[in-house]
Amino acid sequence: IHLVESGGGQVQAGGSLRLSCAASGVSVGHAVMRWYRRAPGKQFEEVAYITTPGEITHYLNAVRDRFIISRDNGKNIVELQMNNLQPEDSARYHCTADIASGKYWGRGTEVTVSS
Question: Please, what is the Cα angle at 55 between 54 and 59, to 5 degrees?
Fold first, then answer.
């Protein structure tokens, strides 16, 4: 099982990025897919998740109304649309897949937001 994140980069405050998590060896439609982030010197934070079945989504309060998690079963990817980015959103973002056999992590993609 492999998860590969992409879409990170450097943006100014107020800008947007769209992260993508490409999965292989697991169907994103049959897993609870999550995005985590970790800023330097800080703990991991769960940013958002989307369940299966039911497509229920949940967000960290700090990103609610700015970030949107979505899933494309045909492409087998999960995306995180991030709008109105702020410097405190700077972190390495990882996607994970929760299935019966365990929790699988990608290596992450770096997001840097300058003020």
Answer: 130
